Records
---
Amino acid sequence: MLKKSIKLLSILLFSFWTHAFVLASEAIHYQIEIDDSIHHQAKVTVLLPQIESSQMDVFIPNWRPGRYQQIPLANGISHMIAKSSQGKPLKIVKMETNHWRIFLEQPSKVELNYRLYANELSDRTRHIDSSHAYLDAVASLVFIPEFRSYPIHLDLDVPKGWKSVSGLKSGWNKNSFVANNYDELVDAPIETGVHEEYHFDVKGIQFELAIWGKGNFNGKNIAQDLAAIVKTHIDFWGNVPFERYLFIVHVFDKGRGATEHKNSSLIQTDSWSFNKRKNYLNFLQTASHEFVHAWNVKAYRPQGLVPYDYLQPNYSKLLWWVEGGTSYLGNLLLLRSGLMTQDEYFNHLAKAIYEYQNRPGRLEQSAADASFNEWIAPDGDRANNAFVNIYSQGKLLSLWLDLQLFQQTDGRASITDVQKKLYQQFPASIKGYTEQNLMDVFQSLGLKDAQKIWDSKVRNSDEMDFNQALKSVGLLLSHEIKTQDKDAQQETKATDKKMAYLGIKLAEKSENNRLEYVLANSPAWDAGITADDELVAINNIKITQANYQQVLQTLEINSRISVNYFRNGLLEQTSLKVGAQFEGKTKIIANPKNSTQQIQQLEKWLGVSLKKKMANKAEADNSEE
Ligand SMILES: [Zn+2]
């Protein structure tokens, strides 16, 4: 009864918004009333303090922190109206697609109302349906630069039975939150709806897990694994830059991707991804990556991102470090937590090296340029041939720099020390770090010629020699093929055998054998075949998804073959000379000749004790599952 009265009272206070200001006159009040969840809509009310000037500019950001690309978020905002404290309608003019100007005849408090359409689940910006709402403020709550630093009260009016969670502090009831300012609001999205909730405590810090959606997951197990990850991270960093932390997980058909926030993260994953080891490992890697971000990018971040500019691209040449450095450390800490096996760790690095070595773009664009241009980064065939990806390139550059630093200091320093130093020296609340700062940290830890290395490998696209770099810690790159031993257990053996290579990839599930990409300078590329061509026949043999690999295996290296394909509906023919590539899968193995001392160095570099098998002989498990 008491609860009901309190709720009624709060509704009354909210309705008579002039009274609300009596409670907190210098705060911004946002209210989101989810009044049409089935059609992905809500009504938003914003109550603003006294405005003395004759006009006020209101915006919706056009990107969201964590994804360095412009997104047309304003297209979800409509029917915006404004009125004065006397209830008089105020003139609104739309100045830009994401910019409204409100005109006042005299100083007044202002109430804004608008409709919010939220149906962008996989963008991780906003989504409302009959079971939940996920709301990131950049995509749902207007940004008013002059009130950026004002405290915020946020009230949600949600369907019965929904529960609300957020990294934000709770407000006056279970569906309300408070933030110190707009930046804090943006960095703590809200999940409200029907979800499973788990709580765990690590080293006295409260963690929550909220899972929305249906699938073959076991929430208790996920919470347990997250606790193990969290513990390893906290042990590594020494302390945490938050008071409590929330993991939000969305489970839905074809869900993928994740976004970090100050003291929360959102991971989206496919409904049926929890039973297969390969998929679940991917989930754990993502969780570890997002949790590293609580430090790398949230607690310390590059200069161009401090403070965030919500209305323009935020330029930095260090996004490769922000994302790739995070991936590298996330995987290393996952290995140290025991949730990723040594084989899995080496396999994931080997796969990344294979992809790097087969990406023509690695010699075309530097990591620094890719960072700066992330805002316009293409994907697909063109990206592969002409650009690098800040995640994969950044991860391998981190590996390469780590190996240089570790070798040059005889194991006294590694990239993990660089991350820790940045955390100590560059709190994001005060200042961002520059490329020079990062170079200086490397140098202070013992990396010689940091400037030269930067000019060659970071600001330029000079190839990284991983054969050489891995040798310094007693590891070898090898090509291995699967074999079967007599107990039918999978084994692998090293091979230098080559197989036919054309440099094309058929798009999966394409009925017409559409080429997803054609690698630059490959035999197919030289013959004029390009992405989106549809492969018809090789040497007059009809090509299907089912027989392509078999046909490829019959081709002789260096022989000339004829190729028929459709381009824009017209049949074309060409011929090409078959190339060669390693038949085996790229693997990282411990050098069988490692001395005890070398094994100890390798263990020191990884931060784990090696399994006997790994330390003493070529490791065998080739299964990705
Ligand atoms: Zn990331």
---
Amino acid sequence: MTEYLNTINLGANTLGVKVAARRYFNKEVSELSLSESTVIAAITKNPSKLNPITHPENNAVRRKQVLHNMLSQGYIDESRYQEALNDPVYERIQNVNLVTQGEDKPYSYYTDELTEQVVDALMERLDYKKEDATKLLYSGGLTIYANQDPDLQAIVDQEINNPENYDTAKYSISWRYTLQHEDGTIVNFSEKDIEKYLKEGKGLSFNGLYTSKDQANKRIEEFKEKVTVDSDRILGETVDYVLEPQASFVLMDPHTGEVLALTGGRGEKKQSKTLNRASNVLRQPGSTFKIITSFAPAIDLYGATLASTYYDSEYTLGNKTFKNWYSGGYLGFQSIRDGIVYSLNIVAVRCLMETVKPERGYQYAESLGITSLVKDDENPALALGGLTRGVSNLELTQAFSAIANGGELEKAKFFSKIVDQDGKVLIDTTEDKPTQVMKATTAYLLTDAMKESMESNRAFASDVRVSSTSTRAHFDGMSQAGKSGTTSNNRDIWFIGYTPYYIGGVWGGCDDNQVLKDAKTGEYNGGTGFHKDIWRKIMTKIHEGKTDPGFSKPEDIVEAQVCRKSGKLPTSGCYQDYRGSAVITELFAKGTVPTEKCTYHTSWGAMLVPENLRDLDTDDHYYSYKEPEEEEEDEDSERDSDSSEKNTKNKITISEQGPSKKKSAED
Ligand SMILES: [Zn+2]
């Protein structure tokens, strides 16, 4: 990984030698003469007092010193020294300055976040107060070695901004309009007033998105006509158009924590420090959180394995009924691996409630570096990422990077070193030690299941159709694992995926939380799959020419055959399941292979669903085995308040030939 140098503050809002070279000389760094280079070198000691535009005379003194040092240390000879000294370099700076006036590019999203990270690091590690840290950053002549890889950043920027990756380009607007009435009163209007006018005044079902800039402009003009009279004075009007849906991307090396590229939005970035959707915006993480708060802690700390099963059926806690994302029925006993591959909601919620507990899922997420949770999040919806505030793409990607790095969390690093103007290293992040946040075996097992979610396959079931959630992100020629997330009503879409080399986190959504797609109303604002295309395209490009070493497997991972319905050792009945043999080979951390035998399958292959679950309508229910006498008693006492319709449910006779069809059995 090549480090490249960003020298903070070379005056005139420039950041880095490259930008300074363009700003002062309208040249690339490689094209600078000795004379010009020394002007820039002279700025660093005191960017405000030695600025070549505002204080050329000071800069000249310092520049002479730099040249003198180079001469005395043998970097240049006497003739080059004289030539540089005699060069009327400051006249050229003035000219370029006039030419480029007002053309300074705003900071990139990466640099915006880098400056925040530098200030935070100065405060946390060196006890600076915020204002002192900020002052040091902008006028202390610091040299910051950023971890950004310009080539990778260019690929990320290109795909995030590639119109082909979106089938929709709508616009939200930020509009300010100020009028002064004849009597002197001043009134302000914003895009919210237009929205109100369209909804309440015209009765339109407007959601804040315009289909084109033209349409937005028409609405603005229409509204202005409504509120403006001839005697009004227009004091000001500004409008900004923001492309929607939006997206953000974070690319890291999970083994070092280096943030190699980051993009906080699509479309032109007009100012520094604008809305950074990669690092500063919190959004609902959806199903990506199944791993973070439910499956990972269950396996890592609470004795579960990839083969542990939970009952996928209608599931109600208090007044909340949890549903799966797919329709067509419930699958009965499903393993944690199935829960990951098919992103099963009920399995994740049951795992959190029965094995982990919400408060411990919450703590586990915090141990992976998630800082935006609040106490109220300690509830069953935590397993599905239903959060009070949400998470940032940066923290979510960082959390998954621990899984990609064998359970060791390397905090996201935007710079390797900060060096002061005297050359003293103030902060060196390359010496930071990672934290072991989960067992290496847990990380590998989760990776193996997430790998499968990117491959094409289908759940073991009779007629419930559900497929892997992340095949659209898959690209050829490289090991890869990842987890998708789509929030209810399709407001946020995520994919966090990694290879042996990199981890990339992509988010998509609309800034004002509009739906991306609503099957019921037909509203469509980009759909729910484009982020996976972006991830696949970026990852394909950055892995070009790389060999696939595979994910490294810890020594204490073992294989064992188990029953997929019970997660326990198979009996002869487990082979006889009418949906096919229920015996599978699963991976385990050494010492966690089950020792008990399956009790869910009868010797002839029927399912013996535990009594407390027999009421529930699932794929396994076809085979639920009835023990006549005992069951009758229990049922009578339990079912007093139940409807007669429900009473018929367990009256299914199982024959060895296979299941009677669910509907006909009930009717
Ligand atoms: Zn079994």
